[in-house]
Amino acid sequence: MFKGFKNFVMRGDIVTVAVGLIIALALSTLIKAFTDSVINPIIASAQGGHAFGLGWQLGRTGNKATYLDLGSFISAAIYFLIFMAVVYFLIVVPYRHVQARRGVTVFSEPLPVRTCPACLSEDVPTAATRCRYCCTDLPPVGTMPHH
Fold first, then answer.
1. Rounded Cα gap, residues 20 and 14, in angstroms
2. How far apart are CA 70 and CA 139, in angstroms?
């Protein structure tokens, strides 16, 4: 039982995913600190005065529960964009490069598809000669079926 579990955990793709997740979590903490310590104060200063941040007080003044904090949303959006850019450029691009050297294509553009005239499935590969769903023979690409 433990041998099977060990084989499962030690598979290359599981280890790759685990390392990627650990790196992503570490980057997330770093980027969160940046947005909390740098971006949030800049956004809050745009409001001016003694406000909690960039936004509007909907209820009694000074009540954080009724404060519509647009600044926190903007900060979260900036955090998301920075985090996704960091993950893409520090994890995805190098991983794609390493895999390409091994002869494996990852994160590639999707292949062109067409619609089956019989069952209207929209994800039939362009080069297919038969629909994978209804097994209808498909005309060669570039020819129009006769009505």
1. 10
2. 54
Distance CA(117)–CA(83), nearest Å, equals 42
- CATH for the stretch 2-101: 1.10.1200.120
DSSP string, the chain: -HHHHHHHHTSHHHHHHHHHHHHHHHHHHHHHHHIIIIIHHHHHHHH-TT-SSSEEE-SSTT-GGGEEEHHHHHHHHHHHHHHHHHHIIIIIHHHHHHHHHTT---SPPPPPEE--TTT--S-EETT-SB-TTT-PBPPPTT-PPP-
Domain boundaries, the chain: 2-101, 109-147
Would you mind telling me the total number of residues written for the chain in this entry?
A: 147
Enter the pTM of the model: 0.53
Mean pLDDT (the chain) is 79
Between residues 27 and 12, the one the model is more confident about: 27
pLDDT at 48 over 70: no
Contact 101, 92 (CB under 8 A): no
Higher pLDDT, 110 or 130: 130
